[in-house]
Amino acid sequence: THFGEQTVALEDKQGLVNKVFHDVADRYDLMNDLMSGGVHRLWKDAMVSELAPPRAGTRPYRVLDMAGGTGDIGERIVNASMGYAEVVVADINADMLRVGAERARSWRYPGQVSFLEANAEELPLESNSFDAYTIAFGIRNVPRIQKALDEAHRVLKRGGRILVLEFSQVDVPGLEAFYKLYSDRVIPPLGRVVTGDAQPYQYFIESIRKFPDPALFGSMLAKAGLKRVKHTSYTGNIATLFSGWKI
Ligand code: SAM
């Protein structure tokens, strides 16, 4: 099996995705910075500002950061809440979580973050138990996206919010051609230099090209039962933030 243009069965897709993140886990954070020129940090900051987690309250504020990998979003949310929010960083990949747990030891509020191995399609979590569900650059890796969104809706409390940050198709003239060239000519070789293998990054580019457009993805959120669905584009449409509420 390779990741080329061929379509892979859904069960196989998860296997391929798991191998990719197993292979890159230790270099994942470095690659993110190199490939995005650090810009992924700005998008993640923008996502957390949009969430605006409370800094105090009468009840705990619980967040599920799905496909949370090495914990970037979890750390940001806890910091933004001045240590009030409790974040469960969940990911299907134990290697990504291991890197996250090591990093977490030096975070400002390490006690507010826990790590959970879980598949977004089938969460081992109670219904109506989270105030927010976040997923950054994760949903396009999940084979059955609708199933994951249904699960997100299930675990959210009424009044809870979902935020999905994901790459999108660049359609801004000028930037489009540059982005394609960058994706095809820069990312795979850069991936090979840093991680010893270009294939995971070939997968990465294709998974972005295959991800549903904002209108279709928005309708999937609505189908899962989420209300007031909207989206905002960042940096010439390279990334898009989706928001919805469980009302
Ligand atoms: N959220 C982090 C970030 O923004 O840097 C990590 C994103 S990383 C590109 C995608 C993550 O999705 C990987 O850690 C991968 O293991 C995880 N993933 C893939 N399929 C998954 C699934 N079915 N359930 C949960 N996590 C999954």
Automatic annotation (TrEMBL):
It is an enzyme of class 2 (transferase). It catalyses: a 2-methoxy-6-(all-trans-polyprenyl)benzene-1,4-diol + S-adenosyl-L-methionine = a 5-methoxy-2-methyl-3-(all-trans-polyprenyl)benzene-1,4-diol + S-adenosyl-L-homocysteine + H(+); a 2-demethylmenaquinol + S-adenosyl-L-methionine = a menaquinol + S-adenosyl-L-homocysteine + H(+). Keywords: Menaquinone biosynthesis, Methyltransferase, S-adenosyl-L-methionine, Transferase, Ubiquinone, Ubiquinone biosynthesis. The keyword Hydrolase does not apply. The keyword S-adenosyl-L-methionine applies. Pathway: Quinol/quinone metabolism; menaquinone biosynthesis; menaquinol from 1,4-dihydroxy-2-naphthoate: step 2/2; Cofactor biosynthesis; ubiquinone biosynthesis. S-adenosyl-L-methionine binds at residues 70, 91, 119-120. GO terms for molecular function: 2-methoxy-6-polyprenyl-1,4-benzoquinol methyltransferase activity; demethylmenaquinone methyltransferase activity. InterPro entries: SAM-dependent_MTases_sf, UbiE/COQ5_MeTrFase, UbiE/COQ5_MeTrFase_CS. GO terms for biological process: aerobic respiration; menaquinone biosynthetic process; methylation. Its EC number is 2.1.1.163, 2.1.1.201. HAMAP family: MenG_UbiE_methyltr (MF_01813). Belongs to the class I-like SAM-binding methyltransferase superfamily. MenG/UbiE family. Methyltransferase required for the conversion of demethylmenaquinol (DMKH2) to menaquinol (MKH2) and the conversion of 2-polyprenyl-6-methoxy-1,4-benzoquinol (DDMQH2) to 2-polyprenyl-3-methyl-6-methoxy-1,4-benzoquinol (DMQH2). This is Ubiquinone/menaquinone biosynthesis C-methyltransferase UbiE. It comes from Devosia equisanguinis.
